[in-house]
Amino acid sequence: MNPTPRFDTTWEAALGQADTAAATLGRDVVLVRDLLGRASLLVDDRDEPLDPDAPELVKLREEFPDVTHPFTGAEPVQTASSLFAPEMFFDSAEVIVRREREPGGAGQVAVLERTVVGADWSRDTEPDDVTSADRRERRIALYGFKGGVGRSTATAILARHLASRGHCVLVVDLDLESPGVSSLLEDPAGLPAHGIVDHLVEAAVGNEASLDLVTRSSVLPGIEGNGEVWLAPASGKPREGEPYDYLAKLNRIYSDLPATEPGGRPRPFCARLEDTITACEDLVAERSRRPDVVLLDSRAGIHDIAAITLTQLSGLALLFAVNNPSTWEGYRMMFRQWAQRPDRASELRGRLRIVAAMFHSAGDAKRLGALRDQAYETFSALLYDDVEPDAVDDLLDPDAPPVFHPAPLDSDAPHAPIPILFGNDLVGLDPYRGRDWLEMPFIEAAYARFLTALDRLVPKPRTGAS
């Protein structure tokens, strides 16, 4: 008895149909998967409309529903000439090319995912202009696939450390469902009236002017000279007597915005979040100076916030990891998504660094090596080039692009773990009980190698900083 068709098997069958259609029709095709997982195949005949009764097209309309049931779209096979706005599909920024067009032969095969969460894992990563490129290079994302790995604590400690080196640092709390870094950097009374969610909600209706989004940290010890730490919290602190419904705002921020004028382009959530962070940076610049470093404390897991933060907003992404199967399977899921587009993988991989989070070093000198080996295996399988450079040096075309496959023991490679040592004193830390916790000896011991590594990776303070 044949097994029941499921989500994954029907999608593989749909991909096979797309390959066949591109070859037999000689046209570009886009395979679209909607919010329920249903597949439809679109054939690009804008230059030369196809005969609806062409034998190849008729056969495709008969076979495609058979192999994709029950995940078959309402209109399983359509041509561009029959669509009201074909450019919304064929020219979409979210289209992922699976196979390039063959001159005089098969057409291009691409896929387009219509999703609520996850679209931003496959968007383009290049910034739109020189200004945003410069902004991105000064942003550092701190991310962990699993929560509870000390990411927010590391963000606060790194912010203080960089400020002590003369940097103007802005910390942006993007863990909107579970904010945490704000309490490490400021007392509740010192928080600004508005937060990240406020800007996203107000900007959606053009009402974002004059929002109070940032505050300078007043509780961090040990910062002298020209260094500063600023905070953009997830949630604001409303003034006495004013209403504030954080959950109602959070439920309304993730959608893309329609075009504001006929023929205009929609405003995707990734662009909206970029606008929000830029607004925070501009406010710091108005009140003091342009931030030298922006630390983005990202939420954990597979979520559009994480996708945008890692792929589009940051010039350096610190991936927090503990050496267990669930962590590496999570990163493999991410890397597989990026690997669908080789151009994306080659652009992203050099911006990543693994952080060995809450690392237990006592009693086993081999633990860090084991984590490094697992990281190397994961990067090699999905993001590094297939062949190691020393195996192909004599075979490469001198005009070919260089092979990116760092050696296993390369200490500057993306897979080389930067350790943060585990300390029992960090478990259940209550920053409100004593703001001098950052100066305790166990902090220096636990974070020394992490902070030294980041000193080498962070851009130098701008002119005018000490």
From TrEMBL:
Coiled-coil features, chain-numbered ranges? none
Does the UniProt entry include the keyword Nucleotide-binding?
A: yes
Note whether Nucleotide-binding occurs among the keywords.
yes
Q: Which key words tag this protein in UniProt?
A: ATP-binding, Nucleotide-binding
Q: Which SUPFAM superfamilies match?
A: P-loop containing nucleoside triphosphate hydrolases
**Which Pfam families does this entry report, sorted A to Z?**
CbiA (PF01656)
Which residue numbers delimit the CobQ/CobB/MinD/ParA nucleotide binding domain? Answer: 140-182
Gene3D superfamilies, per database record: P-loop containing nucleotide triphosphate hydrolases
Q: What is this protein called?
A: CobQ/CobB/MinD/ParA nucleotide binding domain-containing protein
